[in-house]
Amino acid sequence: MIMCGIVGFRTKNHFNQLKASLSPAAKTLAHRGPDDSGLFLDENSGIGLAHRRLSIIDLSDAGHQPMKCNEAEIYIVYNGEIYNFMEIRTILESYGFRFQSATDTEVVLNAYLQWGVECLHQFVGMFAFAIWDGRDRSLFLARDRLGIKPLFFYKSEDGQTLIFASELKAIMAFESFKREVHSNAIPLFLHYQYIPAPGTIFKNTYKLLPGHFILATEQDIKALPYWSLPQQSSTIDSGTQGEVEHLPQLDAHLTTAVSDRLISDVPLGALLSGGIDSSIVVALMQKVSKRPVRTFSIGFQEKGYDEAPWAARVAKHLRTDHTEFYVTSKDAFDVISGLPEFYDEPFADSSAIPSYLVSHLARRHVTVVLSGDGGDEQFCGYVRYWTTVAMAAAFRHIPGFLTGVAEKVLRKIPAPIAEKTYRLFQSLLPQRFQVANFPDKWQKLISLLNETEISELYRTTISLWSKEEIFHILARALPESRYEDIFKETGDGSVLPRLLRVDQATYLPDALLTKIDRVSMANGLEIRVPLLDHRILEYTAGLPIDLKYKNGVAKYLLKKLLQKYLPNDLFERPKMGFGAPIDLWLRHGLKELLLDYLSSDRLRKEGLFNLSFVEKRIKEHLSGKVNHQYRLWSLLMWEMWRERWLNS
Q: What are the structural domains of the chain?
């Protein structure tokens, strides 16, 4: 098992040119694999493979890559973890295979030799790999089912060259690569905070979709699916029988997933926020471990963002070996300057800052951590799920002109006054409507009053700049993305199951998993996500929907399970989210940075954004009149990315 970086190419007519760039490209991934590196080149086949290694299992030289098959001219470069590799190895040994190492890399290679591309159905884990098969001169690329590990590829317009890599920066390192920004990428980035797959910021460059593989032969290059997200159940469990039946099953499934991810030859721990998901993961780790689990959390001075006290209480109850670190504004600001290096295409999720800091903290003590990512997208954990359902139900009974009037009135209320009013009545509201970061939710609520279609309602809750704002700031319409296609695929059934499927297909791989991959790899840390075992996804998809959201209680069944390990008062609280006080920072400590990167001179010279439109948002935010934190943050991240990758 190894976390690493891979890069390579296949070309019919530019071998020497690409060969010269392969080693420099691999060096851009050194942070993903500081322990070892290797190259394979074959001019006759036009193939080049490179690898950077961070060793987790079998730390010996036997795990060196590119790895060659003993039986044939087949080579692999591999990034990931196959948790059931020992079971697969046993099967392969029964077929006569002999192994030279204790690595899962060799298991993947021999599994391909035995089953071809069908080997993908055998694997439980997270992975991205490339296999060059010299027998038929084919290149086989694959990415895991949920998209936990990244894989980018560039395909030349003439179809003669294919370049692939774990990160976009490695593709950019090839001298022949042209950094031509795709015109659709900028509005999509401003809208979603990230660029939806399969697109990237550049032309002719793509993300391989989760659960897909590429087969590049002498004749053509095809991307094909080998796994699809399961359809979400819309059934309702009218009694308690379903809960009684499914609770022990969920416990068993999660315990297995956690146990599988504890295999390591290096120190291992867990990230603990004190929320439902990380708490259940740590509780199960503690259940199956022989010694106290190492846990890590960070805190902020700003109470609306500080989860450290909750994490500490959970850690104390579970008796973990807990380490916490309180972040100063200087700590956070030091990270911000490095964000464009980690995220080599524009990315504006500000929770990347605390994610980086907790990864940095953990890496000082361990090499591998487990996290609770993936619970919200399976158990209706986000506020936006039930907000969308509630608004959709309300709009069926409220005349459209009244919602329009309400929107105009609410927009005139200054954000500080709205927040003070909310705080006065917060304790009287149902828990699902109690939120820690109210200003952002207030802006979303107002925007929702403009929409009636379910797909547009939900798009409003997950977007930054609205479609109308995109038109004003860029003078162009918002292009379509996979979001529209996936929403259509969900049909016309119950709303909640449709929203879960949309998030699992888009937000989960493109935003959440991208975020944790880049910040963890920037610190040489491996993050494992047991809740995203594909077997868990397949199981939870079939659960009755009211075992996920029941009588106003989100994550219903998961909370019932957590009661087995923690008292209610340790986790029954308003959902906070793993964020950072960007609104305050932009008004104070980051004000100069904001005004520098979004200065009139800079934006006028760039000629991309509507200058007066941006200036108005800056002025409103700095005065405290309107909270534009995430809109301005996205513009700041764009300008910082542009300076690093287009102007360098």
A: 2-225 (3.60.20.10), 241-379+503-570 (3.40.50.620), 383-501 (no CATH), 582-645 (no CATH)
